[in-house]
Specification:
Layout (H helix, E strand, L loop, with lengths): L2 H14 L3 E8 L7 E3 L5 E2 L5 H13 L8 E4 L16 E4 H10 L3 H11 L1 H11 L14 H5 L5 E2 L1 H12 L6 H12 L17 E8 L2 E8 L5 E8 L9 H17 L3
Antiparallel strand pairs: 1-2, 1-9, 3-6, 4-5, 7-8, 8-9
């Protein structure tokens, strides 16, 4: 379809979706979006918060505070019941391994061990001061439902997600080697049930997904000849966590966007 037809299609799909949608499509190097809907809306981030955690950790590696070879303890008490990475029990693992599992498998145990190492304040300072994000806030660890009930939620917006990914792709943060590590980890994301759901091409996508009850997100860069940022985030939706209704919706929109822009 043409770009005008795509706009009509996206607007129609958003209008009938029984929940909230934030959607942003843009060239990675241009401030003017191709399509934008609720780009600045702040919503529960789910596992999208793991991208700024990744970048904060790599920034501390750049500064020499941490090393990718540092071995961090994953004690038994830290292993969450949803982990498929630490099924064999506790141990010591390198920071690089934990970063990979946090992103590629979206492992919550790995994320919490990394957060214990960094501290919430370090993540928020990096997001605000170095990345210039206005809607991203990390206030609790993963699966800390007591904190969530107390009103401590993690938040982001698709505009903030775009800024993060585009600063990374554009070489404006980290060092060259650490940027390549970050993009490599994001490209190896194992969760393909959202934006990649209906795309048959062997396409490189550096991205992060997230889901909770009524929440499903996917944001990242299609690494085409001209890198394309796509962020599709949904909340207040009809799907309990694990139900694919919202992820299918994201997949339909992403395929239409990809098919329209893949030739540049």
């Amino acid at each position: 379809m043409t770009r005008d037809q795509l706009t009509i299609y996206l607007e129609r799909e958003i209008a009938v979706f029984p929940g909230q949608t934030a959607l942003l499509v843009s060239d990675a190097f241009s401030p003017d979006p191709f399509f934008s809907h609720q780009a600045e809306a702040r919503f529960p981030s789910a596992s999208l918060i793991k991208t700024p955690i990744l970048l904060t950790a790599l920034e501390q590696v750049r500064q020499g505070i941490l090393s990718l070879r540092d071995r961090l303890e994953v004690p038994q008490r830290a292993i969450l019941p949803d982990s498929q990475v630490f099924e064999e029990g506790p141990g010591f693992f390198t920071l690089e391994e934990l970063l990979y599992w946090m992103i590629a498998d979206s492992d919550n145990t790995a994320a919490n061990v990394i957060l214990d190492t960094l501290g919430l304040d370090a993540v928020n300072e990096y997001c605000t001061i170095l990345l210039g994000l206005s809607n991203t806030l990390c206030q609790r660890k993963m699966l800390d439902f007591d904190a969530a009930r107390a009103g401590l939620e993690n938040y982001t917006s698709v505009a903030d997600q775009r800024r993060m990914f585009c600063l990374l792709q554009g070489g404006q943060i980290l060092s060259h080697g650490l940027r390549e590590i970050a993009l490599s980890i994001l490209r190896r994301q194992r969760h393909s049930g959202c934006m990649l759901r209906y795309i048959a091409d062997d396409v490189a996508l550096a991205h992060k997904t997230g889901s909770l009850d009524g929440v499903a997100h996917d944001c990242g860069l299609f690494l085409l000849t001209k890198p394309l940022f796509v962020g599709i985030c949904t909340w207040d939706g009809p799907s309990p966590d694990g139900d694919p209704v919202q992820r299918r919706y994201i997949g339909r929109l992403a395929k239409a966007i990809y098919d329209t822009y893949k030739e540049g």
